[in-house]
Amino acid sequence: MKSFIIKKGTALALTATILAGTLVLPTNGNANAVYKKTLTQQAVDKAANTENIPGVIVAVKNGDANWSYASGEANIERNHKVDADSAFRIGSTTKTFVATVALQLAGEKKLSLDDTVEKWMPGLLKGNGYDGNKVTIRQLLNHTSGIPDFLTPELKNKLLENPSENYTPEQLIAHALELEPVTGWAYSSTNTVIVGLIIQKVTGETYAEQIKKRIIEPLVLKDTFLPGSSMEIPKKNARGYLNTGDKLVDITVLNPSFANAGGDMISTGEDLTTFFRALLGGKLLTPEIQNRRK
Question: Where is the Beta-lactamase-related domain (predicted)?
């Protein structure tokens, strides 16, 4: 992996930050709409010139007002500017896709959010203070399961040493269970990896196959992928970096299995905006489940 001295503050894990959603534009004339767009672009430029953010992409879809804008760098080392249609690893936004499939299955009565992990994955959570009978799918989705994140400093170091190493979801979960349980709300990618396994148990297909069938294909997300263990990324991409303190390490080309259902997807600003607009607009979930999300 390439590394170089930090020149611009510190970098986020993802080079591009997506502001995905709907920008409400005024209805009293094109001039105000243009003004709002200009203000947004200025805000994006400002964000891209602050520390911690190498580049920003904004995509807007609101009726006929569909546009995108990018500012900052896609490749810090080569000083390449980020483009609005650049692909990139979306990291934990993957969790929203996985959770959507789980909620769809709940809406179809194929599982209940109050089902325990033990019901679907017997013996997966046991020992060291863990009990699959006491953890529900709902708790996995809202990060109150008590299960810590597997992505420890130790695992990050292993990733840097061997970015091509393959990880199974069972390995990631086992690593998390070596740690002490956490209390209250605690963000953890381990939760979503477990949800991915439950999706597979319920449907007979991997979470990746289900996301493709239920979300990517119906919404025609042409630049959204679930790479599995493939290290490839589209040629036109925004690089991803890991801040190691005094250096940035380009971790774009790696085996995404280390993230699994917690963060392995690749997408673009336009595709993410299409997805979130459909999700928030009630097009992906039953009315009952959609209302319970609010």
Answer: 42-291
Q: What is the pTM of this model?
A: 0.84
Question: Given this structure, which CATH class describes domain 93-216?
Answer: alpha beta
Enter the tokens of residue 236: 């036109």
- Asked if residue 201 lies in contact with residue 149, where contact means CB atoms within 8 angstroms, the answer is no
H or E element in which residue 266 lies: strand 266-267
Residue pLDDT, tens place only, 108-130: 999 999 999 999 999 999 999 99
Q: Where are the domains of the chain?
A: 3-89+224-254+265-293, 93-216
Both tokens of 105, joined, read: 């299955």
Mind listing the pLDDT tens digit for each residue in 16-30?
A: 333 333 333 444 556
- Percentages (nearest 5) of helix, strand, coil residues in the chain: 40, 15, 45
The first and second tokens of residue 84, run together, are 């609005």
Nearest alpha-carbon partner for 72 in 93, 87, 51: 51
